[in-house]
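Regression test case RT-17, inverse folding.

Input:
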């Protein structure tokens, strides 16, 4: 079991490490690459997974409420703790509620569960991201406008993927193959960008960082413990939800904190420490999942 976990997590860490080492010397500007990834590669990854011929979306519908339950429960559990600790809920709740199911979760799911399990995990990724861009944006700022949501490429790709998956429509193999190939570029790009981002953050405000970093996987695993029996998930779905719950805070939280000017330094600490602690919590989650 330990060897299998290492086989899953080490390739992920290698790419992150390469990004970190490269960024220490070259200091690359990843803005254009990240925008390309979010505008093109991620939407194609989502669409190609949801609309794949061998993926039965209806069979995985329980993963939708499972993801929503984990996100909601994490927020409910962390809200009173934020008040007790004297931390703004707008700072603590997003990184606890919205985890790194993209940069880290997708490649881990592919290595742990294979292509079929990966396609199913995309459902968790989609629901988490939809909630991040809607509920998460509102938590960061109550003045957030959701009118632009319909223009978001990931949201549009999700809607199209769900439509194709539920209607049983399929694109020609040559076209789907090209879309899938470009979408799969998402995974190494995300991991490399995560390594680059880690060069820029610091341990300033590490007390808050440690609290958020620990709460994210703990509340996620607590949510998984409730979701599995409540929704009567099968073995494969249970494993995916447990892995989802064990993931660290999403890097996107730091980008959104900068956008809304919601204590980005504290958010950086939460994200950095959380992803470092993933070396502990992700193997733990994989041990339960496998």
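Golden output:
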């Amino acid at each position: 079991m330990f060897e299998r976990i290492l086989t899953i997590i080490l390739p992920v860490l290698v790419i992150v490490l390469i990004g970190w080492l490269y960024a220490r010397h070259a200091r690359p500007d990843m803005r254009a690459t990240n925008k390309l990834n979010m505008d093109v590669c991620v939407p194609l990854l989502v669409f190609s997974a949801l609309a794949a011929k061998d993926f039965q979306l209806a069979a995985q519908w329980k993963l939708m409420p499972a993801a929503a339950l984990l996100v909601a429960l994490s927020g409910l559990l962390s809200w009173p703790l934020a008040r007790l600790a004297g931390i703004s809920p707008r700072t603590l709740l997003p990184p606890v509620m919205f985890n790194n199911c993209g940069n880290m979760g997708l490649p881990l799911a592919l290595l742990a569960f294979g292509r079929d399990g990966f396609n199913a995990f995309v459902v968790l990724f989609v629901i988490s991201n939809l909630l991040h861009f809607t509920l998460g944006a509102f938590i960061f700022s109550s003045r957030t406008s959701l009118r632009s949501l319909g223009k978001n490429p990931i949201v549009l790709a999700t809607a199209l993927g769900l439509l194709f998956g539920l209607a049983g429509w399929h694109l020609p193999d040559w076209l789907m193959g090209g879309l899938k190939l470009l979408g799969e570029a998402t995974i190494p790009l995300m991991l490399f960008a995560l390594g680059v981002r880690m060069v820029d953050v610091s341990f300033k405000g590490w007390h808050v960082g440690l609290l958020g970093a620990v709460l994210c996987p703990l509340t996620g695993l607590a949510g998984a413990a409730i979701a599995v029996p409540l929704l009567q998930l099968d073995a494969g779905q249970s494993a995916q939800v447990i892995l989802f719950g064990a993931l660290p805070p999403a890097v996107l939280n730091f980008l959104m904190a900068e956008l809304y000017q919601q204590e980005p330094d504290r958010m950086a600490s939460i994200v950095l420490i959380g992803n470092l602690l993933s070396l502990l919590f992700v193997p733990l989650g994989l041990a339960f999942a496998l």
